[in-house]
Amino acid sequence: MNLDPKIPDGPLEKKWTTAKANYKLVNPANRRKYSVIVVGSGLAGGGAAAALGEQGYNVKCFCFQDSPRRAHSIAAQGGINAAKNYQNDGDSVYRLFYDTIKGGDYRSREGNVYRLAEVSTSIIDQCVAQGVPFAREYGGMLDNRSFGGAQVSRTFYARGQTGQQLLLGVYQSLSRQIGLGQVKMYNRHEMLDVVLVNGVAKGIITRNMVNGKIERWAADAVVIASGGYSTVFFLSTNAAGTNVSAAWRAHKRGAGFANPCFTQIHPTCIPQEGEHQSKLTLMSESLRNDGRVWAPKKKEDCGKNPKDIPEEDRDYFLERKYPSFGNLAPRDISSRAAKEVCDEGRGVGPVVAGERRGVYLDFRDAIQRLGRKTIEARYGNLFDMYENITGENAYERPMRIYPAPHYTMGGLWVDYNLMTSITGLFAAGEANFSDHGANRLGASALMQGLADGFFVLPYTLGNYLGSIPPGEAGKIDINDPAFADAENAVKESVGKLVSIKGKTSPRSLHTALGKIMWNKVGMARSKESLTSAIDEIRALRERFWNDVLIPGGGDELNIELERAGRVADHLEFAELLCFDALDRNESCGGHFRVEHQTEDGEAVRHDDQYANVSVWEFTGVGNKPKKHVEPLNFENIKLAVRSYK
Amino acid sequence: MSEKSLNLNLRVWRQKNADAPGKFVTYKLDNISPDSSFLEMLDLLNEQLIDSGEEPVAFDHDCREGICGSCSLTINGIPHGKGRMMTTCQLHMRSFENGETITIEPFRAQPFPVIRDLVVNREPFDKIMQAGGFIDQRIGSAQDANALPISKETADKAMDAAACIGCGACVAACPNASAMLFTGAKMSQLNLLPQGQPERYKRAINMVDAMDANGFGNCTNIGECEAACPKGISLDFIAMMNRDYAVAKVKRFFSGAA
Question: Which tens digit of pLDDT belongs to each residue from A131-142?
Answer without folding.
Answer: 999 999 999 999
